[in-house]
Amino acid sequence: MKFLKKIWKIILPTIFFLMLIILLILGIKNNQPSAGLQEIAKKEIIIGDKRIIAEVADDEKKRAAGLSGKESLGENEGMLFLYDEPGIYGFWMKGMNFSIDFIWINENKVIDITENAPQPKSNNEELIIYKPSGAINKVLEVNAGWIEKNNIKIGDEVSIKNYKK
Asked: Which run of H or of E encompasses 102?
């Protein structure tokens, strides 16, 4: 009987200690954002007196995915594609569920616009590649009709700020 008491005095605290460690590890793990739920970077873009909040696509993976698969954008929402070097970058509408406008930007100026790029009618449809007329380092995709509704013009100044809720 004494032997069992000695074992329980060792085993119970050990079990308690191990359970505490496991709970701490699980608690720390659950407080970390998972890869799929990380905060998406957003920027506030101001063109004239118009304001857009845009998700940022600043690497190959994000730029390749773009808005494909999204069901819609809010009225003053968009996606901002950022490039390290100015160039003529082509965009297509693969996997898009709604039509969009493109605002082609170099540095802090609108250099071209493409309005009402339609979503593909089917997966088999040959896709148009949309390109700006000159080198750009940013592209802002917004809902189709946003450019006309907000009177955006080539030459408009563009300001981009970090978005704070």
From this structure: strand 100-106
Question: How far, rounded to the nearest angstrom, does the alpha carbon of residue 90 sit from its chain's CA centroid?
Answer: 18
The one-character DSSP state at 155 is: T
Of all helices (H) and strands (E), which one includes residue 7?
Answer: helix 2-31
Q: Which two tokens stand for residue 97?
A: 């569920």
Tens of pLDDT, residues 103-142? 999 999 999 999 999 988 877 778 899 999 999 999 999 9
| Cβ atoms of residues 91 and 142 within 8 Å | no
Asked if 146 and 101 touch (Cβ cutoff 8 Å), the reply is yes
107 by Cβ neighbours in 10 Å (0-12 / 13-18 / 19+) ranks as: exposed
Residue for token digits 């407080």?
31
Query: Which pair of tokens denotes residue 36?
Result: 């799929």
3-state secondary structure 51-86: EEEEEEECCHHHHHHCCCCCCCCCCCEEEEEEEEEE
Instruction: Say how far apart CA 88 and CA 129 lie, in whole Å.
Output: 11
pTM for this one? 0.75
